[in-house]
Specification:
Layout: E1 26-33, H1 42-58, H2 69-77, E2 81-87, H3 89-96, E3 101-104, E4 109-112, E5 116-117, H4 123-126, E6 150-153, H5 161-178, H6 181-189, E7 195-198, H7 201-208, E8 214-216, E9 228-233
Parallel strand pairs: 1-2, 6-7
Antiparallel strand pairs: 1-4, 1-5, 3-4, 6-9, 8-9
Helix pairs in contact: 1-5
Length: 238
Amino acid sequence: MSHDVTPSTDSPFRSEPTARDQAPQFVLPLVVRIEKTAPPARTDALETAARAVLVMLSDERSVDDGEWAEAVRDWQDARIRKVVRRARGAEWRRAEGLPGITVTGKSAEVRVFPPVPLDGWPKDLARLQVSGTDLDDPEPPVAADGTAPVLWLNPDLDMSAGKAMAQAGHGAQLAWWELSDEERAVWRDAGFPLAVRAADPARWGELTAGGLPLVRDAGFTEIAPGSCTVVADHPALR
C-alpha cells in the first residue's frame, strides 16, 4: 500500500489540523557537523541525514521495550517533526556526549538523538544554530542508481540544506513505514543505501502521481504549507 501524504489522509506531515495536533508534540533532533575549514558536501549531508533517521527507527533502543521506544512512539503519535541544527568544534564534542547515534557519510557526519518535547531540548542542543546550514556540492552528483532507493526532491522548491535534510529524513521514514519486516531487514542489513537527488522538472508530475510515498510539508519554516517536497522511490514500493 502506498502512503500518499495528501489532505485526504490523516498524515503526520499534512498541513490541516488533525488529532495528531492535540497530542503532545515532540521533535527528532539532528545535528550536522559543519567545520569552517571542511564543510560536508550538500548531497552527502542530505543522504547521511536520511540514513540517520532510518538508523534511529531501526535501532533496538527505539523498538519494543527499548530505552528510547516510548519517546519514539510519542513522537510518531504526533506531528513528525525533525529539526536540523549545526555544530562545530567544542559544540560537536558536547553533542557527541549526549545519548544518540552518529552516522557518517563520505564527508558528512550527522548525529541523531531520541525525540524530545518540542519545548524540552537538552541545553547543549538548544543552543545550536538552525541557520547557517547552506552547503554546496563541489561537483554535480552522479546519476542515481535505480536499483537503490531514491528520495526525489521537488525541483521547484528552494530549500536550505538543513530544511532539505529534514525533508529527506521524512521521505526515508515514509518509505520505512511502507515496507514489510523482511524488506526493512534487507535494507537495514545493506546499510540503508539510498540517494537524494533533485528530480527532473519534466518528470516531477509523473513521480508525484505514481503512488509512491509523498511528503507534504506542514509549512512551519521556509516553504508554503502543503508543499510536496519529496517522493520516496524505493524499488520495493514501485
